[in-house]
Amino acid sequence: MNNLFFRIYLLFFAFFVQNIFAQNYPDGVSDANLVVNNQAVPVKVFSTTDAQTFAEFAGKNTANSLIIVNTANLESKGGWGAFYDNSFAVLKQNGYQFLNKDFKPTENKADFKYITKIKHPLKDEDQVSLDTTYKIWDPSVGIHLGPVTLHYYSLMFVFAFGFGYIIMKKIFDIDDVNQKYLDPLFTWTLLGTILGARLGHVIFYQPELFKDDFLSVFLPIRTKPELEFTGFSGLASHGATIALIFTTLYYSFKIIKKNPFWVYDRLGIVVALGGAFVRLGNFFNSEIVGKPADPHSPFAILFPQMSDEYGITVPRFPGQLFEAAGYVLLFILLWFLYRKTDKKYQQGWLFGLFFIILWAIRFFVEFLKEPQGKEFISIAGLNTGQVLSIPFMIAGLLIMIYSKNNKIAPEADKTF
After folding, report:
1. Burial group, residue 264, by CB count within 10 angstroms (0-12, 13-18, 19+)
2. I need a surface site. Which of 21, 23, 128, 175 has the fewest CB within 10 A?
3. What is the three-class DSSP state of 41?
4. Where are the transmembrane segments (predicted)?
């Protein structure tokens, strides 16, 4: 057991030491080897979703370089197609070679995946691969079902609410609660999560949307620079939490007629697992990425599809996966305590513990994450996410203290 705790300590120590000594990439590129017929050719890897940054790199005419093309570089809306076509023309004029996903030369723009400039141009018969000390995360956007694409991010939300419904149904069975109360809880939780998360993001990170594009705050579209369906992008967990507190209060008093902390204790279990799925969705979307990491770190991942709002595209910490792993462990802990102890009869105790650990995970992982949008709140070097997490952790501690005087008998747990 002592060896286990020592290994955990070393893991956390290495985790934060790597943050302190995070890698700097002054040129905005990372090192790799293009292996051509078993011969390693050192290259500088570049990628960006910003058209101006792409154009600037194209004009540098960097020898021994490899550009990873992403969907943004092939965008044709809003005049960007012509802008990128001009950059492609500059690259071609400077001797760059356009390759498909199999590193085969191509002139078809739709097949562009890599653009490289090395001493000897590649041929169709060459055996080519990319060798890096870091991992590259460059997935498709989703599962293509004919003309419809099921986005992975949306699929993770389906999993979050789907598994949440199944687990809560199991909890209601264990507690002998009538299943008629399950669907209203699902409905109010869904509304609170989506609307609260969206409003929270806009209020805390993008308040200018209220003035610049009001409809995009409440609808899955944007109207500027042109009308476009975007889905509900830009969601904040702090906003979802606040909204869920109020929707659950309504559900507790008006529908199931139980102490709100009885509902919160059980809801926290499924929310922990749901949070893990949401962070996996962020990972698929290459968003909420971490700070630049040493390319030799086992955690280092290059996200070619990440937004330019996070900075240069270089190997980074997978902040989404760190959070997701923490939330899964929290779910396991809460489920164990619910099933194997009598803490579920101490109303508020499980919810208070959920609040403390959930927001502590968020607080510490923020040290390795890039800011989301503009940082409107910053105190003592802490970012907006960390500052907003502190009150929730304090609230969790107070709730746990309050729960000592809020115990119920097992038979009082039933609702028919």
Report:
1. buried
2. 21
3. strand
4. 150-168, 188-207, 227-251, 263-284, 317-337, 349-365, 377-402
